[in-house]
Amino acid sequence: MIVKSNQIFSTWKEVFGNWRYLITAVVISIIFYSFNVLISSWQNLRALYPSIGFLGTINFFFISWLGFKSTIIFHSFISLIIISILFGILISLILFKSRFNITENKKVGLFGWFGIFFGVLAPGCVACGVGLASLLGIGAGFLVFLPFEGLELSILSIIMLSFAILKISNNMYQCNIPLGKTKLKGGIK
Is the pTM of this model over 0.70? Predict the structure, then answer.
């Protein structure tokens, strides 16, 4: 099956032309990013809570959220942003697709889930304390086996999420999903 870029862009135009799915993608991306900031600054938030209280802790989290790029390696921050955006897009496409009850190839779903898993496990740098790997305590020990400080997992996650997004978009295009007055016109199945 050949994926044409005009098919993909046509699908994205239909899906994200609906403001609900566009807002969903943005909100999911922000939540994913916030989750990683929370994991990274969890110890600080917990330590500061008794002295600055709930509102002070929320304020500290917001400041950490805005300045997160200065606390981690640049490539980790960029990969975290890319994975967050891809994660938001994938979830929006899945929600849109589920609205029309479209079945998909199990291989696509598997790539999507592995991409999400690696994206949550180490979206940036394991040593920087980003992702579940650091929360599970496998940050520094894991680095011994990875020559690029966890960037390998980030790149793998980006590739898998991108592949899942492309396959789902192509699947939606081929299934002639109606949206409003228009239909996504599919090619040969």
Answer: yes
